[in-house]
Amino acid sequence: MKSAVIVFPGSNCDRDIATALEDVTGTKPQMVWHGDSDLPGDVDLIAVPGGFSYGDYLRCGAIAARSPVVRSVIEAAEKGVPVIGVCNGFQILTETGLLPGALMRNAGLDFVCRDVALTVDNNQSIFTSGYRSGESITVPVAHHDGNYFADAETLDRLEGEGRVAFRYGESVNGSARNIAGLLNKSGNVLGMMPHPERRIEAAHGGTDGRRLFEGLLRAVA
Amino acid sequence: MKLRIIVTLKNGVLDPQGKAIQHALSGLGFDGVDDVRAGKLFELDVADTTSDAAVDEMCRKLLANTVIENYRIERL
After folding, report:
1. How far apart are CA A44 and CA A221, in angstroms?
2. Cα B69–chain centre separation
3. How many helices and strands, by DSSP H and E, does chain B display?
4. Tens digit of pLDDT for each residue in A28-53?
5. In this complex, do A174 and B65 lie within 8 Å of one another by their Cβ atoms?
6. How far apart are the first and last CA of chain B?
7. How far apart are CA B66 and CA B74, in angstroms?
8. Do strands A189-192 and A83-86 pair parallel, antiparallel, or not at all (unpaired)?
9. Which of A17, A61, A138, A178 has fewest C-beta within 10 Å?
10. Does residue A106 belong to the interface with chain B, where contact is any CB pair within 8 Å?
11. What 8-state DSSP symbol labels residue A93?
């Protein structure tokens, strides 16, 4: 599986997700700088990593979402190329409009950095096929702006279409309906606040994150 | 030409920062502050030839996230 990891000024989980992808797929991902206007051809997966792109100026992910390479990411996503955005990557994907809604300041105002329990709400996507439906997994979060917002009508529609991939097992940041991860309509784009790339090997305290990448590899390759 | 663009949260969007500011104000002894909503203010210096449509597009494409925010343009 050929993958690309987008790197912005202020990304800080780009190497973590690259390591996770290389470990699981056996192929080193190509790192793509935000100022490049083209993605490598025929990639099977694009990863938008966590961090604080552009210092979170204006709104988290707002500036990154308008960078040259992200225009190519949007085009690729619209053609069906799988795209995963983690943490700041999720914020960037909502800012591009590839995913609906917005991620706002945590309801408790604190930066939340700890392990959380997630429920797999939909295991029928390429990103979640490594899990059982309704399974509880443990993955860490580390964010200040993960409070998912969308209007009630949008939330009903997203739930009706099975687009909630993961929910928090408890209230973590005030997210509407405890949404932690969300799919686009065609199921090839996933945004999630928790960090699966930080639970890849036993030394990380668990491998629940690894199964996302393993499932993805089976689904895509 | 100078412009001022005011970005505010839409009604119905919770504003935890505004709430914290409200609590801080009551902590300082200012009674009767029922609600605080925090927003953003941008001052732009643009060419006189800049059209209203272009300014509106700047707001929609970048300065405001219209999922959660409203904007208002003032010419100074």
Report:
1. 8
2. 8
3. 2, 3
4. 999 999 988 889 888 999 999 999 99
5. no
6. 8
7. 18
8. parallel
9. A138
10. yes
11. H
| A94, A109, A150 member nearest B20 (Cβ) | A109
| Distance of alpha carbon A27 from alpha carbon A151, whole angstroms | 41
| pLDDT tens digits, A111-130 | 999 999 999 999 999 999 99
Strand order in the sheet with B2-9: B40-45, B2-9, B69-75
What is the reported pTM?
0.94
Q: Which residues have CB under 8 Å from A33's CB, separation 6+?
A: A7, A69
Whole-angstrom distance, CA of residue A143 vs CA of residue A88: 8
Domains and CATH numbers, chain A: 3-220 (3.40.50.880)
Binary contact (B16, A147; C-beta < 8 A): yes
Pick from B8, B36, B62, B63 the residue to mutate for testing the A interface (most A CBs within 10 Å). Answer: B62
d(CA A57, CA A70): 17
> Which burial class, exposed, middle or buried, applies to B26 when counting CB atoms under 10 A from its CB (0-12, 13-18, 19+)?
exposed
Q: Facing residues of A179 across strands?
A: A167
Between the CA of residue A82 and those of A108, A152, A187, what are the distances in Å?
33, 27, 8
> How far is the C-alpha of A144 from the C-alpha of A61, rounded, in Å?
13
**Which among A62, A106, A174 has the least Cβ separation from residue B62?**
A62
- Least Cα distance to A192 among A51, A98, A86, A119 occurs for A86
Question: What is the C-alpha separation between A33 and A160, in angstroms, rounded?
Answer: 37
CATH of residue B58: 3.30.1280.10
Is pLDDT above 90 for B49?
yes
Give the range of the structural domain holding residue B26, as residue numbers without chain letter. 2-75
| A75 tagged catalytic | no
CA distances from A99 to A93, A103, A122 (A): 6, 11, 16
